[in-house]
Design goal:
Radius of gyration: 20 Å
Distance between the termini: 50 Å
Number of strands: 14
Shape: globular
Order of helices and strands: EHEHEHEHHEHEHEEEEHEEHEHEHH
Number of helices: 12
Length: 327
């Protein structure tokens, strides 16, 4: 079985689906000739032709608008935005049309498109290149939101997203693009959207994260377990829909919950998870659920980036606090 980085796994997923389904198209700024900013679509134009993989003008709203027209006509577009912060000009198309087309047509038509883009910090980038705003997309009814944390999951989730009949926002943690390698099968396989993964079973507390912060949590586990705190680590994988069955089963077992997210603290995914934990698992909680997040600021420029994003040391500190809490 080949060993791939996340970039290679995503390229392979697009390659497999382009070969498997003639209705699949890939397009965006520099997607064709250059293969994208991070080279996720490299060589795909040469292999599948300029009518299946092509460049667009620097016009994000038009890219999202093209997804609507193509989808309505029976195609399955996969659009790339260069960075998370560049999606904002396309929000009118996403919120006003893409997310609600199925509702508006009373189920007669749907928009089976994928809008994919790198997100988050960790590479010392410029303003509007390091956003982690998945909560914003998950708050829009009609959208599904997916974030992988490993090469294997990235390919399986991308294939599921392309085959989904609803619009999927596919956020790719760019700090993990080439941070790890993993065995990834060559052919078609799928990871269901809406299914979390219990990466490690434990008894003392549940730690939930996704995307790049899963990498931080994995590193933190090495030191936490030396403190004899047995962590159950869950990779959310799908921000929306959420896998409440897996989450509630874990919280009821451990009685303690820590959510680690890169995005701003207020009104985020962590807040939603903690609210639902209180609603569904209150009688089982042995401590108030906690969250470790980015700050309520614009993601800072490179010099301050490490102060903004959660680190393994801060995850360890929060786990220690949660473990020590007594009612």
């Amino acid at each position: 079985m080949p060993v791939m980085t996340m970039v290679q796994a995503l390229t392979n997923a697009l390659d497999v689906k382009l070969a498997d389904d003639p209705s699949v198209l890939c397009f965006g700024e520099d997607v064709g000739v250059e293969g994208g900013v991070f080279r996720v679509t490299e060589h795909l134009q040469k292999k599948h032709g300029v009518k299946r993989v092509f460049d667009t003008p620097l016009a994000e709203s038009s890219i999202a608008g093209a997804c609507i027209g193509m989808s309505v006509m029976g195609l399955r577009p996969v659009a790339e935005m260069q960075f998370d912060g560049f999606v904002y000009p396309a929000m009118n198309q996403i919120i006003t049309h893409i997310s609600r087309y199925r509702y508006r047509t009373r189920g007669q038509r749907n928009i089976p498109c994928v809008i994919r883009f790198p997100y988050g910090g960790g590479v010392k980038a410029l303003e509007l290149h390091s956003e982690a705003m998945e909560a914003m997309y998950a708050h829009i009814p009609g959208l599904k939101v997916v974030i992988p944390s490993t090469p294997y999951d990235a390919k399986g989730l991308m294939i599921s997203a392309i085959e989904d009949n609803d619009p999927v926002i596919f956020q790719e943690p760019k700090r993990l693009y080439r941070a790890m390698k993993q065995e990834v099968p060559d052919g078609l396989y799928r990871i269901p959207i809406g299914k979390a993964k219990v990466e490690k079973e434990g008894r003392d507390m549940t730690v939930v994260s996704w995307g790049a912060m899963m990498h931080v949590c994995r590193k933190a586990l090495e030191s936490i377990e030396k403190d004899h705190i047995n962590i159950e680590l869950i990779d959310l994988r799908s921000i929306y829909p959420l896998d409440w069955d897996t989450l509630t089963a874990s919280i009821k077992k451990t009685g303690r919950l820590l959510v680690v997210q890169e995005g701003p603290k207020s009104f985020g995914v962590a807040a939603e998870l903690i609210a639902m934990a209180n609603e569904k698992c209150f009688e089982y909680l042995e401590a108030p659920p906690m969250r470790l997040c980015g700050n309520d600021t614009i993601p800072p420029l490179p010099r301050s980036e490490d102060l903004y994003c959660p680190t393994p040391e801060r995850v360890h500190y929060y786990c220690r606090r949660l473990a020590d809490y007594q009612m």
